[in-house]
Each structure stands twice: as structure tokens, then as C-alpha cells.
Amino acid sequence: MTNILVVDDETEIRAFLELLLTRQGFACSQAASVGEAMEILKNMEFELVVTDIRMPGESGFDLANHVKKNYPFTSIIMASGLDQPSVARQALDLGVYGYVIKPFTPNQIIIAVQNALRRRELEISANDYRKNLEHKVAERTLSLQKTINGTIRILSQMVELRDPYTAGHQKRVGELAKEVAGFMGLSEKNRENIKIAGFLHDIGKVACPVEILTKPGRLNEIEFAMIKQHPQVGHDLLNSVDFDWPLAKTVLMHHERLDGSGYPQGLKADEIILEARILSVCDVVEAMASHRPYRPKLGLKKALAEIKKRSGTWFDEDVVEACIRVVEEGGFDWLEEKWD
């Protein structure tokens, strides 16, 4: 049964409304003041409150504010002797569902009550639908994210299968780049994006011959020229995918240097986006600290010394400082395990 609370300081009005609404099949309770109504609301759920405006103590507007704040699914109708457009507008601005002017007829009250309850049902249904939709969207988003993460892992592993000597390199670069980006104050979303770029930054090496990737000695000029194509190839592979941030551009620029000595485009300074500047530093640190076919690992200390030496010429000074701080302060075990 629908519960309605009638709030009015006039006994005759309360009695009339209770009788009228009870005959329509509603269950009614009465309150002679806003304070009494608030106490009743604490102990019982109501679908609708019919309230006067002018009453001793707090007004119907105070009650409307209280109900909207604490009982959002309880509808409100104001029945008042104030026949003033400004008062009616104020009531409607508070979110009441109806404004009936005294003296009113039974039909006016019945119609207002039915309209308010119907509107309440529609709003509850809309709210339930919205919550259900949000839940489904969240589930689909999570499922899609898992699919994307799986795809990223597969793409990253494709390079490792061709070049087992650098297995795990992209993952470690991504993890380090995420930490550096966080140290620099980038948002969580941007941190995750840079991590993805790290996982995929060498994807273009799928176009390089395995013999070159795994060659135990130094590369000759022709071989190195082929290796230098991998940022462009990676960019071309990823550019056809509609990401909401510059993943392909980050991969393209991760071997660029501030002084223009990098590749493939020889970009300088601010021509290189921040994401690529972060990735380039982390790529060098991981590569130098790890074993390669053509040399043993150089160690973490030498890697940090190298980026510090090249700070401001090859590498962004802020990124270098952040990377050194992140590594020195620790906080992720795989650094120590991998790099001693």
C-alpha cells in the first residue's frame, strides 16, 4: 500500500486530506509541524509527502529540502494558501512534484497525488535502468580492457619470440616508464598509457630479420639502418588503431634525441612529445642494465650515469631526474632482481 504523510498545522485540513486519500486506497499519517514530520519520517517510509508551506517554526520549504536530501525517492506536493507565482516557482525549483492552491477541490488533490506518484514511479524506473546500464557498461569495459591487455601482451611477446635475448625488455621498460610518469605527476590514465607504449615500443622489430636481432657482434651500417626502421614500422602498425592518446606517435619518437641526433626523423626538443621523452630514457636504462647478444650487461649504475651524462642534450632533464629518483628510491622488486 502507498504511504502518504500529510503535514499541516490546521487540524481540519489534515483530517480532510486523510479522509480523502484513505478513500482512494492510500495509507495516511499526519503531522502538525515540520519537526513532527521529520520524526515520523525517521521510522517509516513514505512514497509521498503533502505539506503546507506556512507553519509555526520551520516551513514547508525546510521540509522539502530535508526530504530531498535524506529521502530522494519520496515525492512532495505542496498545498498552500499562497497564490503567488514566485512562491510556486520556488517550490518547483526545490523539486516538488506539484503545487496546489487552497482552497482546493478533492479532484485537484487526487489528480496532483496521482501525477506525483506516477512521476515517482517513472523516475525510479529510470534510475534503476541507468544503474543497470552503468553496471553493464562497467562489465563490458572490464571485459574489453582484459581483451586489450591480452592483445598487448601477445603483440609484445611476438617481438620476444624473434629476439629471446631481450625477453621481458618491453615489459620492464613499460613498468619503469609508468613509475617515472607517476613521479612527474602525470595522471593515472597517462601513466597506464605510457606503460602500454613501453610494452609495444619495439613492436616494429617484427620486420627486422632474426639474424640481425640476435647477431652476437656489432651491427654494420646496413644492418643498423634496418634496425633504425623499427620505430617507423611500429608507428605504421599502431597508427591504424583508434587510440584516444598518441600511442603510435610515442612509439615513433622513442629513439629521438633533444639535440636532433636521434632517429627516424631527427626531431629536436619540444618536437618530441613528453611520452616519448619518458620512454626514451627508460628504454636506454633498461637496455644498458641488461644483457645483449653483442655485450654483457653494463649494470644499473652505468645506465644511470649515462642518462645523467646525456641529460639536456639527448634526454629531457626532468625525465632523467625523475628516473634516477625512482630507481634510487626503489619500490619495485623486479628492478633489483633483474639489475642486481
TrEMBL record:
InterPro entries: CheY-like_superfamily, Cyclic_di-GMP/3'3'-cGAMP_PDE, HD/PDEase_dom, HD_GYP_dom, Sig_transdc_resp-reg_receiver
One Pfam family it belongs to: Response_reg
Keyword Ubl conjugation: no
Domain Response regulatory intervals: 3-117
Gene3D superfamilies from the UniProt entry: 3.40.50.2300, Hypothetical protein af1432 (1.10.3210.10)
Alphabetic keyword roster: Phosphoprotein
Record keyword Iron-sulfur present: no
Modified residues (4-aspartylphosphate): D52
Domain of life according to the entry: Bacteria
Biological-process GO terms, alphabetical: phosphorelay signal transduction system
Residue ranges of every copy of the HD-GYP domain listed in the record: 144-339
The protein's name in its UniProt record: Chemotaxis protein CheY
